[in-house]
Design goal:
By secondary structure, the chain is an alpha/beta fold. The protein has 13 helices and 18 strands. The strands form four sheets. A nine-stranded mixed beta sheet has the order 12-11-10-13-15-17-18-16-14, sandwiched between helices. It has a five-stranded parallel beta sheet with strand order 5-4-3-6-7, sandwiched between helices. It has a two-stranded antiparallel sheet with strand order 1-2. α2 crosses α6 and α4 packs across α5.
């Protein structure tokens, strides 16, 4: 319940949901006109904090405290502001409703918008129950689109609250984003929201998978994914990401040979940062070394010098050493960086440079991609721009292709 039930911005019911809204122009509107569609905004302020510090998520209070202890900082608010900046730059009229404080209000104000708060929580509230209650309030407020910042866990919470009654669109801000409800990056999410709110026929609704991994199993190097349902979500092939595709059978002899070739060509005195995934596990196997399937390892002179490393540990190992990064392509989504390998941060990539990146991928993974280019979402616009353009991808022992990378 609001402390001031007579305030102008909203009248709140017992559960914190809006029962009425003010008759005044809101974000993106011209005074005296009510042409804009209504956008709901929810931010999970804790999303993504475990990525760069190697925790693979922030589900649970103990993991969150460990992330803070390791120096993790919130990122979702900044990414929300980037999405809202792209949305407002489109000049699409819209009315914005949100939740109080860090759950949306602060990001909206930072983006220069004038939101209506339709759900209030205690300061510092940010758990799943708060997300679900805020989403329910958005549904009662009859939003045309619910824009949220978070990862797969946030998508799950919102789906459980609104089902397919409200179209939803995610600003990617988590560690594990395997669901198909997210924009390709924050700016893409803002642009896609603008197209949808403007009624563009290119931003059609689709049934998008909401998936999530068991973080406990994830940290134990085991993949345990589950499909939780389908949400209605705007889609435009250049702006939205697809769900992560599973790996194909492990009998790809050409890929095995490509991984052996990469391993054999590793130079003495050079540090090799090896990313997560089954393709990278093949590289490590070719070296005769154990690997972290879902983490980042480091190799120097044929020896494992670091396992399941975070950003800080990688930077320490890189100090004074020539370094290369070896990564694969995320199946179904086509990401090189920014999905599940945030330990290889923009700072790490900047120090290595574009020419120091080695990409190994099976050719059929490229053929299966819906987008015409690979993607990066490092959180740093300059690094994303550095990575953009055509990049050599190793697809066989003596075969490579040049493939476009888009920021």
């Amino acid at each position: 319940m609001s402390d001031n039930p007579d305030r102008d911005d909203a009248t709140l019911g017992a559960a914190g949901a809006a029962t009425a809204e003010p008759d005044r122009p809101l974000a993106g509107e011209v005074a005296g006109r009510r042409t804009g569609r209504k956008l709901g905004l929810i931010v999970n302020p804790l999303a993504g904090m475990g990525g760069s510090v190697g925790l693979k998520g922030t589900d649970g209070p103990d993991i969150l405290e460990e992330a803070k202890r390791r120096g993790a900082r919130p990122l979702s608010g900044e990414r929300t502001v980037r999405a809202l900046a792209r949305l407002t730059a489109s000049k699409t009229p819209f009315r914005l409703v949100t939740a109080s404080g860090d759950l949306g209000e602060h990001s909206a104000l930072a983006a220069g918008l004038d939101p209506v708060v339709v759900h209030r929580t205690e300061p510092g509230a940010s758990g799943p129950a708060d997300t679900k209650a805020a989403a329910a309030a958005m549904a009662l407020s009859a939003v045309d689109l619910l824009l949220f910042a978070g990862g797969d866990g946030t998508a799950r919470d919102i789906l459980s609250a609104v089902g397919d009654r409200v179209p939803v669109l995610g600003i990617p801000a988590g560690v594990k984003m395997h669901s198909a409800v997210f924009g390709a990056n924050p700016e893409s999410a803002g642009g896609l929201a603008a197209l949808f709110l403007d009624g563009s026929p290119t931003a059609r609704l689709r049934d998008a998978e909401v998936m999530d991994l068991d973080e406990t199993a994830f940290r134990e190097d085991r993949l345990s994914a589950r499909l939780y349902g389908y949400a209605r979500s705007p889609y435009e092939r250049h702006l939205a990401q697809n769900a992560k595709a599973g790996s194909r059978a492990d009998d790809n002899a050409v890929l095995e040979a490509a991984c052996r070739r990469v391993a054999a060509r590793m130079r003495e005195g050079v540090l090799y940062i090896v990313g997560p995934g089954t393709t990278m596990r093949r590289v490590m196997k070719s070296l005769g070394l154990p690997s972290t399937l879902l983490g980042v390892d480091a190799v120097l002179d044929g020896a494992l010098v670091g396992s399941d490393l975070d950003e800080r540990a990688l930077l320490d190992l890189m100090e004074g050493r020539e370094t290369r990064i070896v990564v694969g392509v995320l199946g179904g989504q086509g990401y090189l960086f920014g999905r599940g390998n945030q330990q290889i941060s923009a700072k790490v990539i900047r120090k290595v440079g574009r020419e120091g990146i080695i990409v190994v991928t099976p050719l059929d993974k490229l053929v299966a991609l819906e987008a015409a280019s690979l993607r990066v979402d490092t959180g740093d616009a300059e690094v994303d721009a550095l990575l953009a353009g055509y990049m050599r991808l190793h697809t066989g022992p003596d075969r490579s292709v040049f493939y476009k990378v888009s920021a």
